[in-house]
Amino acid sequence: MSTNSNPCRIIALFNQAGGVAKSTLTMNLGYHLAQLTHRVLLVDIDPQASLTKFMGLIPKELDSTIADAIIEELPLPIHEDIHGMDLAPANRVLSGAEMQLVNAPLRDFRLKEALEPLLSEYDFILIDCPPSLGLLSFVSLVAATHVLVPIETHIKAFEGTDELLQTLNSVKKANKKLQIAGFVPTRYAKSNSADVRTLGAIQEQLSSWGQIFPPIPRATAFVDASEEREPLAVYASKHPAVPLLEKIAESLVSL
């Protein structure tokens, strides 16, 4: 049980680009926060449901998902104590839910309202956003206290950052308290000169917006761990990325 007296921090992991390791980071950072004795809820709001799969659930077999909470305004369905974390899962139904949200009253606040009753039960709620600038990402950012941006150390991924920052600025009109928790460079290969240059550009151009965390290396161990439905620290505790993830989790505690 957490001894932390801080209010619940709701952190949206968001980038409109796909393949930047959002779901992997959500699961692994949640695990390390739980290891630090914090109460953690993971929220999967991506119709691809990668996080739900990584946590060992089978999306198509789920009777109830986050879609029921944001469309029907039912209580958030929560699966408890998976590697010390709780999970509100997703599946493909969310794709249709996003269409239904378009005409829903007070649509921007649907996720915020679904999370409201749970704020006293958790220290951290981590939201795995879809790789798009659509409504599901928007309602996630409106619900969040902080946004953490995974950004691939690849020049094309970095070139999309201006659009991402513009989105965050527009969300702040609906959520004035939203803060940037930082940027996590991902899929980094220090042997690749292009990755090194891109990391330098990220550090130079984004540090005024928020903290730049140490880069997370490109590693097949992440894929292997997710296939085994385990956080990296459980699957390969000696992997060099584990202390990097621990360090990011510790930084989130001080938000």
TrEMBL record:
Q: Which Pfam families match?
A: AAA_31
Q: Where is the AAA domain?
A: 9-180
Specify the superkingdom: Bacteria
TM segment ranges: none
**Could you tell me what this protein is called?**
Cobyrinic acid ac-diamide synthase
Naturally occurring in which organism (per UniProt): Hyella patelloides LEGE 07179
